[in-house]
Amino acid sequence: ESTYPGQDGGFEPVAVADGLDRYAGLRGAEIAGVTGFPCLSFEPETGRPEPTPTLDRVQAAAKAMREAGIDPVVSLPSHTSVSSIPEIARLGGAFGEPGHALTGTTPQHAVDMDLREVPALVYVSEIAQLGTAPSVFGGGFYHRGHARHVIVATPRGRRRAVLHKAPAASIDYYRRFTWVDDGPEATIGDTAVMALRTQIFVTRSRVAVVSGVGTGRPQLDGIYDPVGRRVA
Fold first, then answer.
1. Is the peptide bond before 38 cis (omega within 30 degrees of 0)?
2. Which domains does the chain have, with CATH numbers?
3. pTM of the model
4. pLDDT 10s digits, 48-85
5. Given a cut of 70, is residue 1 above it in pLDDT?
6. Pairwise CA distance, residues 106 & 131, whole Å
7. Among 82, 95, 156, 219, which one is most buried in terms of CB atoms within 10 A?
8. CB neighbours of residue 220 within 10 Å
9. Do 66 and 106 touch, CB atoms closer than 8 A?
10. Where do the YhfX-like C-terminal domain residues begin and end (predicted)?
Protein backbone atom coordinates (compact mmCIF):
# COMPACT_ATOMS: atom_id res chain seq x y z
CA GLU A 1 0.00 0.00 0.00
CA SER A 2 1.06 3.57 -0.60
CA THR A 3 2.12 5.80 2.26
CA TYR A 4 -0.26 8.42 0.85
CA PRO A 5 -3.11 6.88 -1.19
CA GLY A 6 -3.83 8.99 -4.23
CA GLN A 7 -0.15 9.69 -4.81
CA ASP A 8 0.55 6.32 -6.41
CA GLY A 9 2.57 5.85 -9.56
CA GLY A 10 5.42 4.04 -11.22
CA PHE A 11 6.31 0.35 -10.94
CA GLU A 12 6.18 -2.23 -8.21
CA PRO A 13 9.66 -3.71 -7.65
CA VAL A 14 8.64 -7.03 -9.21
CA ALA A 15 7.77 -5.19 -12.45
CA VAL A 16 11.02 -3.24 -12.76
CA ALA A 17 12.89 -5.83 -14.83
CA ASP A 18 10.03 -6.02 -17.35
CA GLY A 19 9.85 -2.24 -17.45
CA LEU A 20 13.54 -2.00 -18.21
CA ASP A 21 13.15 -4.37 -21.14
CA ARG A 22 10.10 -2.53 -22.39
CA TYR A 23 11.46 1.02 -22.26
CA ALA A 24 15.22 0.68 -22.72
CA GLY A 25 14.88 0.74 -26.49
CA LEU A 26 12.76 3.87 -26.73
CA ARG A 27 14.37 6.66 -28.71
CA GLY A 28 14.98 9.78 -26.63
CA ALA A 29 14.68 7.92 -23.33
CA GLU A 30 17.48 7.18 -20.89
CA ILE A 31 16.96 5.12 -17.77
CA ALA A 32 19.01 6.84 -15.10
CA GLY A 33 17.69 6.00 -11.67
CA VAL A 34 14.94 5.22 -9.22
CA THR A 35 12.82 7.16 -6.76
CA GLY A 36 9.64 6.96 -4.71
CA PHE A 37 7.66 9.21 -2.42
CA PRO A 38 7.92 9.58 0.50
CA CYS A 39 11.06 7.71 1.50
CA LEU A 40 11.33 9.55 4.81
CA SER A 41 8.51 10.83 7.00
CA PHE A 42 8.58 12.77 10.25
CA GLU A 43 7.60 10.71 13.30
CA PRO A 44 6.43 12.70 16.35
CA GLU A 45 7.38 9.81 18.64
CA THR A 46 11.07 10.01 17.74
CA GLY A 47 11.17 13.70 16.82
CA ARG A 48 12.97 13.00 13.55
CA PRO A 49 12.31 11.77 10.00
CA GLU A 50 12.22 7.98 9.72
CA PRO A 51 12.28 5.58 6.74
CA THR A 52 8.91 4.56 5.29
CA PRO A 53 7.83 1.33 3.55
CA THR A 54 8.25 3.21 0.27
CA LEU A 55 12.00 3.24 0.90
CA ASP A 56 12.02 -0.57 0.89
CA ARG A 57 10.40 -0.53 -2.55
CA VAL A 58 12.88 1.98 -3.90
CA GLN A 59 15.81 -0.06 -2.62
CA ALA A 60 14.32 -3.22 -4.13
CA ALA A 61 13.86 -1.45 -7.47
CA ALA A 62 17.45 -0.21 -7.35
CA LYS A 63 18.61 -3.78 -6.73
CA ALA A 64 16.67 -4.97 -9.78
CA MET A 65 18.29 -2.26 -11.90
CA ARG A 66 21.77 -3.25 -10.75
CA GLU A 67 21.02 -6.87 -11.60
CA ALA A 68 20.10 -5.65 -15.09
CA GLY A 69 23.47 -3.92 -15.43
CA ILE A 70 22.34 -0.38 -14.63
CA ASP A 71 23.98 1.59 -11.83
CA PRO A 72 21.01 3.73 -10.77
CA VAL A 73 20.95 7.21 -9.37
CA VAL A 74 18.91 6.86 -6.18
CA SER A 75 16.71 9.75 -5.09
CA LEU A 76 15.07 9.54 -1.65
CA PRO A 77 12.68 12.50 -1.37
CA SER A 78 10.52 13.98 1.35
CA HIS A 79 11.59 15.85 4.44
CA THR A 80 14.98 16.73 2.98
CA SER A 81 16.92 19.23 5.08
CA VAL A 82 20.45 19.73 6.36
CA SER A 83 19.65 17.44 9.29
CA SER A 84 18.38 14.56 7.13
CA ILE A 85 21.00 14.59 4.34
CA PRO A 86 23.38 12.26 6.27
CA GLU A 87 20.50 9.80 6.72
CA ILE A 88 19.69 9.95 3.00
CA ALA A 89 23.33 9.14 2.24
CA ARG A 90 23.37 6.31 4.78
CA LEU A 91 20.32 4.77 3.11
CA GLY A 92 22.01 4.86 -0.29
CA GLY A 93 20.50 8.02 -1.69
CA ALA A 94 22.37 10.59 -3.76
CA PHE A 95 19.51 13.09 -3.97
CA GLY A 96 16.61 14.35 -1.91
CA GLU A 97 13.94 16.98 -2.46
CA PRO A 98 14.56 20.52 -1.14
CA GLY A 99 10.88 21.30 -0.60
CA HIS A 100 10.13 22.75 2.80
CA ALA A 101 13.77 22.99 3.82
CA LEU A 102 13.91 26.10 1.62
CA THR A 103 11.34 27.82 3.84
CA GLY A 104 12.17 26.08 7.13
CA THR A 105 8.71 24.55 7.36
CA THR A 106 9.23 20.79 7.54
CA PRO A 107 7.30 19.07 10.36
CA GLN A 108 10.57 18.81 12.29
CA HIS A 109 10.99 22.58 12.22
CA ALA A 110 7.79 22.88 14.26
CA VAL A 111 9.34 21.01 17.19
CA ASP A 112 13.12 21.48 16.88
CA MET A 113 14.33 25.06 17.14
CA ASP A 114 17.98 24.09 16.58
CA LEU A 115 17.75 23.10 12.91
CA ARG A 116 19.95 24.99 10.45
CA GLU A 117 17.10 26.34 8.33
CA VAL A 118 15.20 29.36 9.65
CA PRO A 119 11.41 29.38 9.14
CA ALA A 120 10.66 31.97 6.46
CA LEU A 121 7.01 31.51 5.52
CA VAL A 122 3.82 32.63 7.25
CA TYR A 123 0.15 32.45 6.34
CA VAL A 124 -1.46 35.88 6.60
CA SER A 125 -5.24 36.00 6.82
CA GLU A 126 -7.75 38.05 8.79
CA ILE A 127 -10.59 37.68 11.24
CA ALA A 128 -13.67 36.59 9.29
CA GLN A 129 -16.18 36.43 12.13
CA LEU A 130 -16.37 36.61 15.91
CA GLY A 131 -19.18 35.89 18.35
CA THR A 132 -19.92 32.23 19.07
CA ALA A 133 -17.84 30.93 16.13
CA PRO A 134 -14.68 33.06 15.87
CA SER A 135 -12.89 32.21 12.62
CA VAL A 136 -10.19 33.31 10.23
CA PHE A 137 -10.54 33.17 6.47
CA GLY A 138 -9.16 30.00 4.87
CA GLY A 139 -7.75 29.43 1.44
CA GLY A 140 -4.18 28.73 2.49
CA PHE A 141 -4.52 25.82 4.90
CA TYR A 142 -3.29 22.33 4.06
CA HIS A 143 -4.87 19.29 5.70
CA ARG A 144 -1.47 17.82 6.64
CA GLY A 145 -0.09 21.19 7.72
CA HIS A 146 -0.81 20.78 11.45
CA ALA A 147 -1.68 24.44 11.95
CA ARG A 148 -2.08 25.04 15.69
CA HIS A 149 -1.80 28.68 16.70
CA VAL A 150 -2.68 32.12 15.41
CA ILE A 151 -1.53 35.59 16.43
CA VAL A 152 -4.06 38.36 15.84
CA ALA A 153 -2.90 41.96 15.48
CA THR A 154 -5.54 44.26 16.94
CA PRO A 155 -5.29 48.08 17.10
CA ARG A 156 -4.61 47.69 20.82
CA GLY A 157 -2.02 44.93 20.68
CA ARG A 158 -1.51 41.27 19.83
CA ARG A 159 -3.66 38.40 20.98
CA ARG A 160 -3.09 34.65 20.76
CA ALA A 161 -5.55 31.92 19.88
CA VAL A 162 -5.57 28.17 19.24
CA LEU A 163 -6.87 26.90 15.91
CA HIS A 164 -9.43 24.10 15.83
CA LYS A 165 -8.60 20.97 13.87
CA ALA A 166 -10.46 20.74 10.58
CA PRO A 167 -12.16 17.43 9.68
CA ALA A 168 -11.11 15.83 6.40
CA ALA A 169 -14.54 16.52 4.88
CA SER A 170 -14.35 20.26 5.45
CA ILE A 171 -13.75 22.82 2.70
CA ASP A 172 -11.09 25.43 3.37
CA TYR A 173 -13.43 28.41 3.71
CA TYR A 174 -12.77 29.28 7.35
CA ARG A 175 -10.89 27.93 10.36
CA ARG A 176 -12.40 28.22 13.80
CA PHE A 177 -10.27 29.26 16.76
CA THR A 178 -10.46 29.77 20.52
CA TRP A 179 -8.83 32.68 22.31
CA VAL A 180 -6.03 31.72 24.70
CA ASP A 181 -6.53 34.67 27.05
CA ASP A 182 -8.54 37.83 27.69
CA GLY A 183 -6.37 40.11 25.60
CA PRO A 184 -7.38 43.20 23.66
CA GLU A 185 -10.71 43.05 21.87
CA ALA A 186 -10.47 42.02 18.23
CA THR A 187 -12.62 43.16 15.35
CA ILE A 188 -13.52 41.62 12.00
CA GLY A 189 -10.75 42.34 9.52
CA ASP A 190 -7.90 42.29 12.04
CA THR A 191 -4.78 40.61 10.64
CA ALA A 192 -4.21 36.97 11.62
CA VAL A 193 -0.76 35.38 11.23
CA MET A 194 -0.03 31.66 11.33
CA ALA A 195 2.97 29.42 10.61
CA LEU A 196 2.37 25.98 9.16
CA ARG A 197 3.52 23.49 6.58
CA THR A 198 1.51 24.22 3.48
CA GLN A 199 1.37 23.09 -0.13
CA ILE A 200 0.79 26.36 -1.93
CA PHE A 201 -0.21 24.78 -5.24
CA VAL A 202 -3.32 23.20 -3.65
CA THR A 203 -4.46 26.47 -2.05
CA ARG A 204 -6.32 29.55 -3.26
CA SER A 205 -3.75 31.85 -1.69
CA ARG A 206 -1.48 34.33 -3.34
CA VAL A 207 2.18 34.41 -2.40
CA ALA A 208 3.84 37.67 -1.38
CA VAL A 209 7.64 37.56 -1.61
CA VAL A 210 9.24 39.87 0.94
CA SER A 211 12.94 40.69 1.22
CA GLY A 212 14.88 42.68 3.80
CA VAL A 213 13.19 41.20 6.87
CA GLY A 214 16.53 40.31 8.47
CA THR A 215 17.81 43.87 8.12
CA GLY A 216 14.64 45.49 9.42
CA ARG A 217 13.83 46.91 5.98
CA PRO A 218 11.05 44.69 4.60
CA GLN A 219 10.22 45.22 0.95
CA LEU A 220 7.49 43.60 -1.13
CA ASP A 221 9.18 42.14 -4.21
CA GLY A 222 6.14 40.67 -5.92
CA ILE A 223 2.85 38.81 -5.58
CA TYR A 224 2.27 35.48 -7.31
CA ASP A 225 -0.58 33.02 -7.81
CA PRO A 226 -0.33 29.43 -6.47
CA VAL A 227 1.47 28.19 -9.60
CA GLY A 228 4.08 30.95 -9.64
CA ARG A 229 2.65 33.45 -12.12
CA ARG A 230 3.26 37.04 -11.13
CA VAL A 231 0.05 39.00 -10.54
CA ALA A 232 1.40 42.21 -8.98
1. yes
2. 13-110 (no CATH), 123-198 (2.40.10)
3. 0.84
4. 899 999 999 999 999 999 999 999 999 999 999 999 99
5. no
6. 34
7. 95
8. 11
9. no
10. 122-220
